[in-house]
Amino acid sequence: MTQIGLGLAALGRPEYLTVGHSDAVNGRFDPATLEQLCHAVLDAAWDSGIRHLDVARSYGLAERFLGSWLSRHANRRENLAIGSKWGYAYVADFQRDAAVHEVKEHSIAHLAEQWPQTLHELGGAPDHYLIHSVTPDSPALSDTALLDDLRAIAETGTRIGISTSGPHQADVVHAALDIGVFSSVQSTWNPLEPSVGPALARAHDAGWFVVVKEAMANGRLVAENSELARIADSAGVGRDALALAVALSQPWADIVLSGAATVAHLEQNVAALAIDRDLIAASELDLAEAPANYWDNRSRLEWT
């Protein structure tokens, strides 16, 4: 299994936060057409050796698209690791320019609603099931009844975990490590926002499965004015490949997600596996922003 995984956040709904997303999907905004695109990218991912796939209830119809792809390739399921997330609901209903795309709720009632939905859409249980985007204000880590229900799911063989976002990701990971329910984590890490790195190293040392998301900072790292983009251009390698390669080089990272929205994007991302380590070292410049500034900038990105 390659260390690169495929996240379907940009393939299950018509709009996403990645810079240039609407241009990439080129008008494929209706569910049927988007499902075909999603299947094509999944086929390319399989052919390239990718075996870790990531979805969520809030990724539009991503779970359904993945489930329909799995039904066509039933013999592939045992060779895949699939992660899904609960806690957000997709509310945009495939309407472009929707005022609100997703709504967060970390309640026991929401878990009771969304877990059966995930089982139905995927045609079975995921290997990893994460609370989506846990932040310090989330009640999820202190709700004992909710944690008991998650333990019950864990007893069926699914690893329970958290995904994190926001400027206090490290605090959330450290808090979750002390609870005893979780063994999987997915966090935003990239050269612009590396603050969670030491916490992820601790989680990895504790036996957790660590997944990196947003390794390209929603496209910001590959923009024209990026220092990493300048290094990639000078070396004659893909900007997105270099950004992913830097994340792949972190010793605690089990999987780094590609957020590819097209087959061409996926092929460019997979090229990260061939990036020379000397070039990776040269790319680890002091690009970090203050976490609060990074997340403020992210919050200003437009859904396209």
TrEMBL record:
Domain NADP-dependent oxidoreductase: 4-275
UniProt xrefs under PANTHER family: D-THREO-ALDOSE 1-DEHYDROGENASE, NADP-DEPENDENT OXIDOREDUCTASE DOMAIN-CONTAINING PROTEIN
Protein's organism: Rhodococcoides kyotonense
Lineage, broadest ranks: Bacteria, Bacillati, Actinomycetota, Actinomycetes, Mycobacteriales
Protein name: Predicted oxidoreductase
Organism domain of life: Bacteria
Pfam families listed in its UniProt record: Aldo_ket_red
